[in-house]
């Protein structure tokens, strides 16, 4: 249904419904804008924190003040810190799942959701009458514990024209573990079982800058070391990925300029292309496995994605007036060096025992035609 | 002595004895790369130390080894088993003894590594020389060869 707004005429008698409609109109409009332009989650604060209980054991858990939006577009505002009750946990979940051979539970998700709480009326229906019905609704927030796995359950998205709903949509704020032996929490976390507390996001097909520069970074503040991607219209345009230096500037790790030039101060690693050859050479002693060139993984060799050619030459050690006679110099299928020989003193016609030796090597790695 | 160069030595963690050396320019290959350790393979990496004069080897497990890139002479590349890493320096510890021979006593309490080789496996022992300065002699059943190295001594790769 399309939104309907109230219209007032001179001399008309206003009913309570007319004034209520004014509030509902704005509330629904805000919720639709929020829901259609943002993804639900925590916008700020709302961390689960713990503090050692006094007296021990266990920890007291608290949800810190903050702001979130749920999947209906309803805002969830927590003005002051809210204790998370272990009594509520044991009441809601009387037989929690514990870890193997332990009294401590697995991670249980902690959600907040909206709650419409009527506020006692302070004015009468008429001036001399006592209050009978609430004249305000407190858009409160309530804590709810879920079961393991609940954190990743899909929730029902309201129809496009709907308002914020009654508050049943749950927003994850963390996970807790409780010791069933004493009924107290023992730990909190923001990530468990592959699920992390979601942050509110933006739904957009276009992000347009206003001053010729758009930046995306994973933290609110541009402190030292915070990574960022910047699209800048200056000097014909550029795309830069880098780390913030703490002074408002970015130390670039990758830049593409308006001519298409890519500048990367570090190494570029990529899948080796057909027709290219990577090389490593050096000296290695008997028994060692020859290394592969930079960027080539053993798994690529094992899978046959690349071909390896190895050349080895015995390295002649300095044996003074004696002679070193190589006996074997090769590598096996593991690229392990087999290199040894005999040192002979021709002046005395004596022979030392065989000795292991080194070889000079060249390893070539190529991709056969048709390979990637 | 030839001019200094940088190369990687594979040495025993416990005593510092160098068992092999590799020079590959600026690259610094890892111990996993140099011993063939591969996550997809069932067998852990090892350095195969030849028993010269025989067709046998002592396979030193990767857990006993470390690879370090150090300044050294070309002599280390030619005869690495005559050196040991001491305080980040490669020092000459004398000719290695291969095949047959006796192991002279060392100083009691010094670190010692013995790697026994059986037909099926290698059995490393990290300990200290006993009160008489001798390495452990509790040979595993079926052991045919052993590698012995102790602080202050040279390397021995002998029949068990």
Task: Provide an overview of this structure.
Chain A has helices at residues 16-37, 86-92, 298-303, and strands at residues 38-39, 41-45, 48-52, 59-63, 66-69, 75-78, 82-84, 108-119, 136-145, 170-179, 184-189, 191-192, 195-196, 201-202, 213-216, 227-232, 238-244, 250-256, 262-263, 277-285, 307-314, 323-331, 337-345, 350-351, 355-356, 358-366. Chain A is mostly beta strands and 372 residues long. Chain A folds into three domains: 16-200, no CATH class; 212-263, no CATH class; 277-366, no CATH class. In chain A, the strands form eight sheets. Chain A has a five-stranded antiparallel sheet, with no helix packed on it. A four-stranded antiparallel sheet of chain A has the order 9-8-10-11. Chain B is 6% helix and 44% strand. In chain B, a hairpin with a 4-residue loop joins strand 3 (46-51) and strand 4 (56-61). The longest helix of chain B is centred in the N-terminal third of the chain and has 5 residues, at 31-35. Chain A binds chain B through residues 280-289, 291-292, 294, 298-299, 302, 315, 317-318, 334-336, 340, 353-358, and chain B through 7, 10, 19-25, 27, 29, 33-36, 38, 40, 45, 47-50, 52-53, 57, 75, 77-81, 98-99.
Task: Kindly list the characteristics that best describe this protein.
heterodimer; A: 372 residues; mainly beta; five-stranded antiparallel sheet; four-stranded antiparallel sheet; 3 helices; 26 strands; B: 160 residues; five-stranded mixed sheet; 12 strands
Which SSEs are present, and which pair or pack?
The complex is a heterodimer of chains A (372) and B (160).
Chain A: H1 16-37, E1 38-39, E2 41-45, E3 48-52, E4 59-63, E5 66-69, E6 75-78, E7 82-84, H2 86-92, E8 108-119, E9 136-145, E10 170-179, E11 184-189, E12 191-192, E13 195-196, E14 201-202, E15 213-216, E16 227-232, E17 238-244, E18 250-256, E19 262-263, E20 277-285, H3 298-303, E21 307-314, E22 323-331, E23 337-345, E24 350-351, E25 355-356, E26 358-366
Chain B: E1 5-12, E2 18-23, H1 31-35, E3 46-51, E4 56-61, E5 65-72, H2 74-78, E6 83-86, E7 89-92, E8 97-99, E9 111-117, E10 122-128, E11 145-150, E12 155-159
Parallel strand pairs in B: 8-12
Antiparallel strand pairs in B: 1-2, 1-5, 3-4, 6-7, 9-10, 9-11, 11-12
